[in-house]
Amino acid sequence: MQCATHPSVETELACGKCGKPICPRCLVHTPVGARCRDCANLRRLPQFEVSPLVLARGISAGVGVGAVLGAIWGVVIPFGPAFFFGLLVGLGLGYAVGESVSIATNRKAAPQLQGVAVAGVIVAYVVRSVIVVARFDGVEFSEILTQDIFGYVVVILGALVAMNRVRG
Q1: Which of 8, 40, 85, 109 has a CA-to-CA distance to 69 between 20 and 30 Å?
Q2: Strands (E), the chain
Q3: Domain that holds residue 11
Q4: What 3-state DSSP class applies to 15?
Q5: 58 — phi, psi (to 5°)?
Q6: Per-residue pLDDT tens for 10-64?
Q7: Reduced to 3 states, what is the DSSP secondary structure of residue 49?
Q8: Cβ-count burial of 64 within 10 angstroms (0-12 exposed, 13-18 middle, 19+ buried)?
Q9: Predicted pLDDT at 89
Q10: Which residues pair with 29 in a beta bridge?
């Protein structure tokens, strides 16, 4: 018999559900046996399907929590007093932003949501930098962007933790 999809290929295989002849290229292994692509019912897992509404909820949660935490960061700890304390700030910031995106999206896991979580951490850094510039007269925004090693360490660590929280 000939494959239904590739008529030039001879085969002895048939779909276990509909009986359509299939070649090894068309074969889909399922828990109940060999199936054709139509009967295999290939779908993405619901956990990885992100609709525009879910993405919007994730964006609002990531940006909102990032802005609030950035404001707190800018008021309470404007500059890095100690490297170890900065690591704790980065861990907490990333965890909070990543968890808020995860909860807002009903624990969905997708690369888009990882990007949203990283953007939330970056929003926190920008808000913190704006507050530091507003609070301290001698500090310029360009100075913060070029000399803020503490802030960069916090952002990198926070982004990694936030990505991991959303990955699932």
Answers
A1: 109
A2: 28-30, 33-35
A3: 1-42
A4: coil
A5: -65, -40
A6: 988 898 888 999 998 888 888 888 888 888 877 777 777 889 999 999 999 999 9
A7: coil
A8: middle
A9: 86
A10: 34
* Phi and psi at residue 35, to the nearest 5°: -135, 160
35 and 63 inside one domain: no
Token couple for 89: 């700030």
Together in a domain, 144 and 79? yes
Cβ count within 10 A of residue 74: 21
**What number is the average pLDDT over the span 102-128?**
93
Structure tokens at 69: 């935490």
Q: What are the backbone angles phi and psi of residue 29, rounded to the nearest 5°?
A: -80, 125
CA 106/CA 147 separation, integer angstroms: 38
Considering only CA atoms, which of 102, 57, 58, 94 is closest in space to residue 73?
Answer: 94
Question: Mean of the per-residue pLDDT values for the chain?
Answer: 87
Residues 6+ away with beta carbon under 8 Å from 49 = 108
Strand, coil or helix: 103: helix
Specify the DSSP class assigned to residue 23.
Answer: -
Helical pair 52-76 and 111-135, crossing angle rounded to 10 deg: 30
Q: How many domains does the chain have?
A: 2
Residues 38 and 114 placed together within one structural domain of the fold: no
pTM of the model: 0.73
CB atoms closer than 10 angstroms to residue 104: 21
Q: What pLDDT, on the 0 to 100 scale, is given for residue 129?
A: 87
